[in-house]
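Box 4.2: Ligand-aware structure prediction
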Amino acid sequence: MATRKPAPRKSSLTRELIAALPKSDLHVHLDGSLRLETLIELAKERKVRLPSSTPSGLRDLVFKRAYKNLPEYLRGFEFTVACLQDAESLERAAYELCWDCRNENVFYVEIRFAPQLHVNGGFGVRQVLAAVARGMNRAKREINRGAEIKDGTLPRFECGIIVCAMRFFLPVFSEHYRAYFEAMPSAPKEEIYSLASLELARVTVKAIEEDGVPVVGLDLAGQERGFPAEDHAPAYQLVHDHFLGKTVHAGEDYGPESIFQAITDCHADRIGHGTWLLSPNRIHDQGIKDKKGYVEKLANYVADRRITLEVCLTSNQQTIPEMRDDLSKHPFKRMRKARISVTLCTDNRLVSRTTVTDEVVKAVDTFKLKPRELKDVLIYGFKRSFYPGPYHEKRDYVRQVLNTMERVFAEHGHDVRMSVR
Ligand SMILES: [Zn+2]
C-alpha cells in the first residue's frame, strides 16, 4: 500500500500556491484599478457616458486584453477619472482596491494616483488625498480585524499612498492644470510642469503633516520622450528633504539615460518599469559613446544601491508591441541575472485586466522561476516598500511575512528556507 506522498514535481509552483502566498503591489494606479461594476454604478450616478453599460460590453470596447496602441490603452482612464471627482467615489475606489488586494493575499499595497486630476470646484488636492486615505484606513481596520491576522497566522494588511506628479499635462486634463496655463500664459511649458510638481509636493507634505494622510512617496508619470525628469527635480528635492520615498516611471518608453536621470535628478529609490535599463540600443543621448559600458555601469549602480524595478509584465505586453505575443522577450530574466532587485506589480488591475496573482503566475511560467527565486522576488516587494512606520517595525513585519511565506511554501511541498552551511 503506497502511503508516502510523491515528491513534488519541479514545476509545482501552482496558481493555488501563488494565490496563497503573501504578496505586495508597489505599483498600482487607483484610477486604473476600479471594479468594473463600480465604474458602471458611479457613471450612472454621476451622469458620465460610458460606451457600454455592461461589464462584458466595456471589456469588449474599452478594457481589453490586448490594445492596438498606447492611446487605446489610455482611453479607459478618461472614464474612470471622470467618475472619480468627489470624496465619496474616491473613498469607495480606495476601499475596494484594498479589499481586492487582501482577497488575493496581497498584504502590502502602495496606491498611486495624481490628485491633480480629481480636483474640481472647492474640492482640492488635500481633500482628494483625505478621501483616499479614509477609504484605505477603513479597509485596513476591517481587514486587520480578521481572525487569522489577529492571531498572527497571516501578516497585517498595510498600505500607503504614492502621489503622482505628471511629466506633461494640458489645460484640458483638469481644472487644476488649466489654472496654471491661465496664470502663466507666456511661460515656457517646462517651467509650468516644474512649478506644478513643486506645488504638488508642497501640498502633499502639508497634507501629511497637518491632515495625517499616509502618503509614503512621490512618483512621476506620463510620457518620457520630450519630457525629462529633470524638470521635476525641485519637487523631488522637497520630498527628499522630508524623508519621503521616491519612485519615477522611467525606461518604459525611453532609454537607460531616462533611468539615470530619475536616479540622479530625482533621487529615485525605485523605478517604475525600468524595462529598457539593459538596452544599449535604446540610448538616444549622442554624448554617450560607449553605450554598452554605460548600461553596464548603470545596471551595476542600480543593483548595488538596491534601487528596485517595479516590473509590470502584462502592462508592458499591452504597450510594447514586440512583447505582445512573446513575453520571453521581456528583460525580466536578464534583470534577475544582473542581480537587480525586481518586484512584480499590476500597474492597473482594470485597464490591464490583471491581478498580482496573474502577474506572478505569468513570471513563474515564462521565466521558469524556482521556488527560492520566487520567494526572493516576493520578499523584495516588502523589503523595498516605503513602509509607513519605523524601520524596526518594518523589519519585524518583513520577518513575519517571510515566516508566513516559508510556511505556505512548505504546505505545498517546497522548502525555501536558507540552508545553513
Ligand atoms: Zn504605472
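In the box above, the bound molecule is zinc ion. Residues 15-34+84-411 form a domain with the TIM Barrel fold (CATH 3.20.20.140).
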